[in-house]
């Protein structure tokens, strides 16, 4: 048995642990740079940038045990003129997989999307993670094969931003 609840600031150490476990699973164990202060500022301040759900395994014999999480934020569809949700992370600890926890987390995010009148719920999946791909497709998700993710990070952002000042100076 399990339950899903909204994360609170007291969950920040747990959220960080789950983020690190996800990074390890995704073969990037040293990639996590987020801190507790980052999560507190961006998830629990006056204008949160994300929401987080915590799944707990429930057993009559023991206290609720953290089993996984879903972290998401809102985006906007210009074509549809409505907001959507981007699911940044969905992760269930290995010992709790196969118990419906991932489905429960995804269903709660979908319920949030429905409550907010969102027109889409989207996320990324690594091409080698066939277990996740099969899971998502079993729930009705479809690949958008004609779209590719484009990204600039850190120095690339600054290099691109410098183009704005260069073009302004040229005026």
Write up what this structure looks like.
This protein is of the alpha+beta class. The protein has one domain: Aminopeptidase, CATH 3.40.630.30. The protein has helices at 12-25, 36-44, 101-115, 130-138, 154-169; strands at residues 2-6, 51-59, 62-77, 82-92, 121-123. The chain has a five-stranded mixed beta sheet with strand order 1-2-3-4-5, with helices on both faces. The mean pLDDT is 94.
Could you outline the blueprint of secondary structure elements for this entry?
Blueprint: E1 2-6, H1 12-25, H2 36-44, E2 51-59, E3 62-77, E4 82-92, H3 101-115, E5 121-123, H4 130-138, H5 154-169
Parallel strand pairs: 4-5
Antiparallel strand pairs: 1-2, 2-3, 3-4
Oligomer state of the chains in this structure: single chain
Stretches with pLDDT under 50, minimum 5 residues: none
The CATH homologous superfamily is called Gcn5-related N-acetyltransferase (GNAT)
- State the helicity in percent bands: 25-40%
Order of helices and strands: EHHEEEHEHH
What's the short version?
By secondary structure, the protein is of the alpha+beta class. The protein has helices at 12-25, 36-44, 101-115, 130-138, 154-169, and strands at residues 2-6, 51-59, 62-77, 82-92, 121-123.
């Amino acid at each position: 048995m399990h339950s899903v609840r909204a994360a609170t600031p007291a969950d920040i150490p747990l959220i960080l642990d789950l983020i690190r476990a996800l990074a390890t699973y995704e073969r990037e164990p040293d990639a996590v740079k987020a801190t507790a202060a980052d999560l507190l500022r961006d998830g629990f301040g006056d204008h949160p940038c994300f929401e987080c759900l915590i799944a707990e395994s429930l057993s009559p014999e023991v206290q609720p045990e953290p089993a996984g999480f879903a972290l998401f934020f809102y985006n906007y569809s210009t074509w549809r003129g409505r907001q959507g949700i981007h699911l940044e992370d969905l992760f269930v600890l290995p010992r709790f997989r196969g118990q419906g926890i991932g489905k429960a987390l995804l269903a709660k995010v979908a319920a949030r999307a429905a409550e907010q009148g969102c027109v889409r719920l989207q996320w990324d999946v690594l091409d080698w993670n066939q277990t996740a791909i099969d899971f998502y497709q079993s729930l009705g998700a479809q690949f958008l094969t004609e779209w590719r993710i484009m990204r600039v990070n850190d120095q690339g952002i600054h290099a691109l931003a410098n183009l704005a000042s260069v073009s302004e100076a040229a005026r």
